[in-house]
Amino acid sequence: MELSVPRPDIQELIERCLVRDRRAYKELFEEFAPKMLPLCIRYMRNREDAEDVLQDGFITLFNQIDRYEGRGSFEGWVRRIFVTTALMHLRKKDPLKISDDITEVRTLGDMESSAIQRLEHKELLRLVAGLPAGFRVVFNLYVIEGYSHKEISDMLGISEATSRSQLSRARFWLQQKIKENENDRERIR
Fold this sequence. Notes:
The protein is built from nine helices and no strands. The chain is an all-alpha fold.
């Protein structure tokens, strides 16, 4: 992987954080909190838990900033810290134990693209937030963060088959909710 230098202003903040400049911590927080809070909300079911993850993520970020080696983007490195922090919070609650054997997964049909296209961004995020915890975590990691099933299985301590199963179930669950929304809209008309 190629070394990547962050924007000059971010690089300066990193350097100031390395010498424990409190203002730099605050500026880095102000730069990344608006980007990381939505990520935390996607993994946690409520805002209070998401804010706890945000706080813990920044503590980890500040304690480990000396470990950033310039490989990949700084924001990508920060995202990984927050994803890992969210997963650690979820592990404490143990929601990932809800996975079933992959053979029990229903086959998915294609979602109607028209239904998806009519969904507003906020509505889709609301539906994703409503996913059962195990489904939501795998869905976020695979679809939104772009991790492979192998990476997800390593991160969560589950098999690749379980990761695929959770993703399939999440898609099926979302498909059902989208159809319900469509039916509700039709009844209102």
